[in-house]
Design goal:
It is built from 7 helices and 10 strands. The radius of gyration is 19 Å and the shape is globular. The protein is α/β, with parallel strands linked by helices.
Length: about 210
């Protein structure tokens, strides 16, 4: 059950957000405390499936052979064959363009070492290394799940943000998404909620409202 304070904070954030001629995102900002993030093992890197999705379409790229490519047709936003993979990797401008345009990558498991060698330098810093999929598997369930996913990466900073939806979603939907992120983050911290100093929700152009 989502706490009423979360729903009220989301409502205030939506109501106080100025009108804009674009669809604003709703973001959750989390401030940690008593966590040594200079130690890599204390950092958080999680993919969280939001109960109500991101409120916008996310782009997923599939990298694989003929069988996977055929199954991904009409489902994936971009399909890259093993042959095309080499061409893209050799063209750094093209590689960066693809990495920027796509939100998530899926790749046949046997191709992962090659992708790491050829595209890792572009994808890894962006937190976009592909999710492996077994040869012959149906990519559709994974793609649909990723389209509702937000990636959390704290690096060495105690303050970080995560998109939890858009302004045209209901306060209740956004609150449930906020709750899902907070619970997952707390589960990765040594002292749970005690390591969360505060949390705020805000629209792209609006003021922040305290959730925690």
């Amino acid at each position: 059950m989502v706490e009423e304070i979360t729903i009220l904070a989301v409502k205030r954030a939506l109501e106080s957000s100025p009108e804009r001629n674009f669809r604003q995102s709703v973001d959750l900002a989390i401030n940690l405390k008593d966590v040594d993030l200079s130690n890599p093992k204390n950092r958080i890197q999680e993919d969280i499936v939001l109960p109500h999705g991101r409120g916008k379409s996310l782009k997923v790229c599939v990298i694989g052979g003929a069988e996977l490519a055929e199954k991904a047709k009409g489902v994936a936003d971009l399909i890259i064959t093993p042959e095309e993979l080499g061409e893209i990797a050799d063209d750094k401008t093209q590689a960066k363009k693809v990495a920027s345009q796509m939100d998530f990558f899926i790749a046949e498991a046997p191709l992962m070492p090659q992708i790491g060698r050829r595209l890792g330098i572009v994808l890894a810093p962006r937190g976009k290394m592909p999710k492996p999929i077994p040869p012959g598997a149906d990519p559709e369930p994974m793609i649909e799940s990723l389209r509702r996913t937000v990636s959390i990466r704290t690096r060495d900073k105690r303050t970080f943000q995560a998109p939890v939806g858009t302004v045209d979603m209901t306060p209740e939907e956004l609150a449930e998404n906020v709750d899902a992120v907070l619970k997952r983050v707390a589960s990765k911290l040594e002292k749970g909620n005690m390591n969360i100093d505060s949390a705020y929700v805000k629209t792209t152009m609006g003021p922040a409202e305290k959730v925690l």
